[in-house]
Amino acid sequence: MLCLFLKSFHKTFVVNHLRTSPFIHQFFCLCLGITVLFSCKKNNSNQPINTDTSLHFSVNGVSNGSLKYTNLPLKPVVKFTFTEAINPATVTSSILLKDASGTTVPVFVTYEGNNKIANVTPQNNLSSFSSYELAVNDQLKSAGGGRLINPVIITLISGLDDTDKFPRISDDELLTLVQKQTFKYFWDFAHPVSGMARERNTSGNTVTSGGSGFGVMALVTGIHRNFISRADGLARTQQIVNFLKTADRFHGAYSHWIDGNTGKAIAFSAKDNGGDLVETSLLMAGLLTARQYFDGTSAAETNLKNDITTLYNQVEWDWYRNGTNSLFWHWSPNYNWDMNLKIQGWNECLITYVLAASSPTHSIPKNVYDEGWARNGAMKNGSTYYGVQLPLGNANGGPLFLSQYSFLGINPNGLSDAYANYETQNKAHAMINYNYCVANPVKHNGYGANCWGLTASDIPNGYTASSPTNDRGVIAPTAALASFPYTPTQSMAALKFFYYKLGDKLWKEYGFIDAFNLNDPWFASSFLAIDQGPIIIMIENYRSKLLWNLFMSAPEIKTGMKTLGFSSPNL
Predict the structure, then answer these.
(1) Which of 228, 357, 456, 541 has the CB geometry, 3.0–4.6 Å to 465, for a possible disulfide?
(2) Residues in domain Glycoamylase-like (predicted)?
(3) In 3D, which of 136, 69, 133 has the Cα closest to residue 101?
(4) Are 154 and 192 in the same domain?
(5) Residue-by-residue DSSP string for 244-298
């Protein structure tokens, strides 16, 4: 009778009088709002009324008007409420749950309220951090044969599966496993001609100078951990050095990117097609570390040491002053100094000034360090963030790679100069980053004591330097794992969460993927040399101080750092 009344009302009153009376208009809309969700039968047909009703539903008790629900348990319950009893026989073909590939996922359906309520839940646990679509289509019928007028598709995104994905092993075994798997990026995936590290896992022949410096340190670590033999590590390092002897150089400095087959510079950007002094310094730090490691008297080790010393001595650090009391990042044979980027602190580039001051052939004086790098003390901070005072740098410390790249070789423990104690600086930086993620002021899903670490990494559809002041909801495993020397307890908690709980969402052929976001779950498919390298290296420095001891043992480094005013028990 309600259906017949509405049709009659529509025909005799609305068509002729709808625009003449606001009261009539409101009354008609109210009638539509309380109609059932199904079309009415006329002459045994199923032609739907052209109404505008909405389907009522909740997901795990939440009904917020959204068609997308995230961070759900692995067996969410979706409750549909109808204004008329439904026909359960039509549910199988009309309420369908499908995964991202379009495969139908079996569900349980239970009923309440004389079949006016349907509760839908998957028969088995959903996969963690995966997207599904739950569709209610127009094949759903009422008990009286009416058809649903307003189909709906709801996106359901599952959250964490808290079960362990891999068997538990000791902490020491876990650290070794992570180092060994990460090592494969620099061993198995190294460029076959040059031996250098590829920029990322999709870079083809493009190798990276700074990332290859990290790779050389990884080779030394691999020998130390018995992943490869000393002879094999020596041969690979010599392969890299032989390639570098013939590759393009610009006043002794290498470009950021190099063709791994030809040694020709590859432009990093329009005017960045020449020498990159910072990338060169990261490369040289790795090579000097290897030189100190291969200390044997054999002809092969002696030749390697001599070759590395020659490459280091040929870098014209002083020329990159460009006539000023500062070092400059770039020089191009086509654009000269057009990029005009001074290397100033506080950031990841301390190593550049240390190597420049340590050069026996092209050294810089202390005033270039003081004026160019330290900006006569302007790089100091001293403010407190999240309960931790930060000696140097920008507010909240910035991305964590700032306290990692230079200190792959430079040992910050007990190290100080006129501007800071660097053990204090690096520990403060890591703790601020950790405390920020625990506080989670932006309320990102997943952030916490076991899941933290903001640094430069891939993000969905791009790349950014994540930090507390540039928080995109993306965690990069390298951030927490390369902080092991500074925050061992917090880093171990993160490592266990990444490995055991997120499991194969993160853990792949070259260790942990570059980054992930648990808000609208996204897991990178990428590996980057500059992110994988610090993981294996800084875990080793935490365990044995191997790379620190080697780099700091170089006589040039001892002299250069003392010249700059550094004091340390390791100098």
Answers:
(1) 456
(2) 341-554
(3) 133
(4) no
(5) HHHS--BTTBPPSEEETTT--EE-SBTTB-SEEHHHHHHHHHHHHHHHHH----S
Residue span of the structural domain in which 56 resides: 35-158
> Could you write out the DSSP letters of every residue in 157-200?
EE----S-SS----HHHHHHHHHHHHHHHHHTSS-TTT-PPBSB
Are 332 and 377 contained in the same domain?
Answer: yes
Query: Coil, strand or helix: which one is 79?
Result: strand
pLDDT at residue 470 above 90? yes
- State the average pLDDT over residues 241-251: 98
Is the pLDDT assigned to residue 86 strictly greater than 80? yes
**Contact by Cβ (8 Å): 277, 328:** yes
Tell whether the model's pLDDT for residue 433 goes beyond 80. Answer: yes
Is the per-residue pLDDT at 408 higher than 80? yes
Phi-psi region of 464 (alpha: psi -120 to 50; beta: other; left: phi over 0): beta
pLDDT (tens digit per residue) in 31-43: 333 233 454 444 4
Total of domains in the chain: 2
Q: What string of DSSP letters covers 390-458?
A: --BSSGGG--GGGGTSGGGTS--TT-B-SS-BHHHHHHHHHHHHHHHHHH-TT--TT-BTTB----EEE
**Claim to verify: residue 190 and residue 301 sit in the same structural domain:** yes
In a domain, 15, yes or no: no
Regarding whether 121 and 200 lie in a shared domain, the answer is no
Is residue 224 in a domain? yes
Angle of the 350-358 helix axis to the 555-563 helix axis, nearest 10:
110
Average pLDDT over residues 305-331: 98
Residue 229: helix, strand or coil by DSSP?
Answer: coil
- Write down the pLDDT at residue 19: 33
Q: Among the three residues 107, 124, 158, which one is the final residue of a domain in this structure?
A: 158
Beta bridge partners, 259, equal 206
pLDDT tens for 139-154 read 999 888 888 878 899 9
Q: What is the mean pLDDT of residues 121-139?
A: 95
- Are 311 and 437 found together in one domain? yes
Same domain assignment for residues 75 and 219: no
Final residue belonging to a domain, choices 125, 158, 191:
158
Rounded to two decimals, what is the model's pTM? 0.89
What secondary structure does DSSP assign to 287-300, as a single string? HHHHHHH----SHH
Residue 386 lies in a domain: yes
CATH number, position 55:
2.60.40.1220
The 3-state DSSP class for residue 560 equals: helix
Q: What percent of the chain has pLDDT over 70?
A: 90
Is position 22 within any domain?
no
First-to-last CA distance in the chain? 95
Which amino acid makes up residue 374?
A
64, 154 contact by CB (below 8 A): no
**CA atoms 222, 223, 229, 230: torsion sign:** positive
Element holding 154 (H helix, E strand): strand 152-158
Token pair listed for 374: 């330290």
Centre a 10 Å sphere on the Cβ of residue 62 and count the other Cβ atoms it contains: 10
CA–CA separation, 406 vs 337, rounded Å?
24
